[in-house]
Amino acid sequence: MMQISNPRICIIGAGLAGLTSAKSLQGEGLNFTILEATEYFGGTWRYEPRVGNYDNGLPIFSSMYKHLRTNLPKPTMELKGFPIPEDMPSYPTWEMYYEYLKNYVKHFDLERYIKYQHHVIGISRAGNAWKVKHKYLPSGEVYVDEFDYVIIGTGHFSVPKRPNIKGEELFKGTIIHSHNYREPEPYRGRNVMIVGAGPSGVDITLDVATVAKTVYHSHHSKINFSKTKFPKNYIVKPDIKEFNETGASFVNGTYENVDDVIYCTGYLFNYSFCDNSTGLTLRPKTVTPLHKFIVNINQPTMLFVGLIEKACLVTALDAQSRYVAALIKGKFALPSRDEMMKEWQMAVDKCVEKGRSLDNLHFLAESEDEYYEELTKESGIERVPPVLSKIRSADMLSKENLYTYRNYSYKVIDNNTFERTLEVDTDSNNIEQTM
Known about the structure:
By secondary structure, this protein is of the alpha/beta class. The protein has helices at residues 16-27, 94-107, 199-209, 313-329, 337-353, 368-379, 387-398; strands spanning 9-12, 33-36, 114-116, 118-126, 129-136, 141-147, 149-152, 159-160, 174-177, 191-195, 214-218, 234-237, 240-243, 247-250, 255-257, 260-263, 267-268, 281-282, 287-288, 290-291, 295-296, 302-304, 408-412, 418-422, 432-434.
């Protein structure tokens, strides 16, 4: 890939991935433009009480709900070069974290790069440039601008992944996806079924249980919740077999009447604005082929930030943004296309060998710290300290009790060690341990 002096750079999206990319590019003295479809920065971290569409017809992207607190402790949520305030709780609310983002944007003067209400509707490769087609929503005017690099930071928590369950069309109650869940009050005194036990599934289940008559939690998760003392109105159920007018039957032969259903079944990737000239294969849960989950191997001047799952997402996209900035600045060279394709194929083969669906291809999981090491080895960026992946592992174990895991406070001692303190404990004195 030839080094381009004074490259024209476009960042798609002013959420967390776009903002960290902006700060990293700025740090390398590079100029860029951010195209943001909404009137705000912050992406999913900005709570939007409305659901459906904005007045201009654009779908509401944010999936934030009113009572959300982070499900990872604050050392893993900190952006490089901008410490999280010491007085912020270990697991802050979305309001607290969004305030932190606002201060981050102000401190690094990032808003001046953002063009709001510019909705990207097409990206194509023409000659040696990227043609980015975007609509200015207030006027409807369409622009096509050329760039040398495109950084895609649009996230993947906006397009609902819904199950296809027999009889759903017969059901007379309400069915929504967690993307459109905002607060529990509409479910007061009702029989509600939550489907799925990922982070939002367990969070929303406990939220709704505070007001519902009964909460049926349908899932097949193997996560150990054995230490969680669920409320009396909570009933765990297996997968749904089919719906009828008034409820659902389950694969174990049982049946329940329910008033409302909330699918907490995850999200799909949506990069439909990328046409065939990008050289990508776009599937509902994969984008291929990507080097290090970042570089479009067929067109290496197209870069993705934040396209990973099962990780300290803030930490990961911050590292990816520094990798991207170092690449564009010319601080390192990518491996050859053949080498990148060979490495990518090995990742695919590894996924298959583990018996996993290719929908899991973007998971870091137990390989998270190894991934950060690889980014540093290739690009020379500062290494993400191993302690952050260790904190994530400790946090995952604490989630056996969904009501108390946020009572732990984590303090980084050095790059490999942290201290964990039980801040709130009704059964014993506070516990401290160094890991």
